From TrEMBL:
NCBIfam families in the cross-refs: SsuA_fam (TIGR01728)
Record flagged with keyword Cell inner membrane: yes
PANTHER family: ALIPHATIC SULFONATES-BINDING PROTEIN-RELATED, TAURINE-BINDING PERIPLASMIC PROTEIN
Organism of origin: Streptomyces hokutonensis
Protein name as annotated: Aliphatic sulfonate ABC transporter substrate-binding protein
Stretch forming the signal peptide: 1-25
Family from the record: Belongs to the bacterial solute-binding protein SsuA/TauA family.
Keywords: Cell inner membrane, Cell membrane, Membrane, Signal, Transport
Record InterPro entries: ABC_SsuA_sub-bd (IPR010067), NrtA/CpmA_ABC-bd_dom (IPR044527)
Subcellular compartments: Cell inner membrane; Periplasm
Amino acid sequence: MPVNRSTFLRRGIAVVAALPLLTLAACGYGSDSKSTNSKEKVAAGSSKIDGLASVKIGYFGNLTHGTALVGREQGLFQKELGATKAEYATFNAGPSEIEALNSGSIDIGWIGPSPAINGYTKSDGKSLKIIGGSASGGVKLVVNPKKIKSLKDVKGKKIATPQLGNTQDVAFLNWIADQGWKVDAQSGKGDVTVVRTDNKITPDAFKAGSIDGAWVPEPTASKLVAEGGKTILDESTLWPDKKFVITNIIVSQKFLKAHPKVVEAVLKGSVAANKWINANPTEAKAAANKQLAADSGKALKANVLDPAWSSIQFTNDPLASTLNTEAAHAVKAGLLEKPDLNGIYDLTLLNKVLKADGESTVDAAGLGTS
């Protein structure tokens, strides 16, 4: 039986609360991210948009959030925002970012599809809108090759996912079901033991032998490979055209209504970031790594950075049809009641920006604001 939606979300948030965050900011949800990067400085003579002093932007320290990493490091958001200061907070988990959005601690955020779905449905469609795409791919099943030599060997093993009900957890549970195996979604016990583990400690758990593999996003997957792991499945191979949404852009509905010009400016920065990433992959990879180092104090080594970056596709398209599929997977796993996602997208401003930039517009697969 599917659990009550709000009950599942409370459990998911409780799991996240038990995980170590980077450094708790005053809001209690994420870590304020300061920078001395000259590219983030407000240009002399620029003016505030709608008189707004600042906009608060959230993202994760994952390469799958490369649009935000590069856009910040290159000063592309600040360039579009004029004298409206871009302020940033970094997060380790989707539910904590949703809480920050709901509390007003951030206004706009880069986030995975499952937290976006949960945040939207929990609020009965009143808290957020998905306003753009960011990335596809970058998720892999990496295993200990001494214990698991083929996909069928996953049965009976301990496999980590980042957290209960997060995007990768849902994908792995769906894959397990497709093999004809059974696992209790809440406890993670069954034909496969699903171990919910913070991405920051997954490589240590793998090295210590307490898990046999993990279904995780980049750069965690490549960190496991660097520790002797082997990729036996790239999630992109399970999707049509090998494309599926891994990162969206969301905004508080209250902020969108009050400050559409500021939201449009951030989207301009996002589109510019994706264009620069795709035109300059080597420089963009270095820029993302530089921002990761600024946020966490440690850059990724080349043997992790290079394969991780190459497995991610950066796109303005939110790949809306795949979001609907991911929601269906969560329902199938028993983690979510069938959600009403009508209106979860508002791509009006994104398509305005894309048209002005000579780019193709994108659609919401029937889930857009009317």
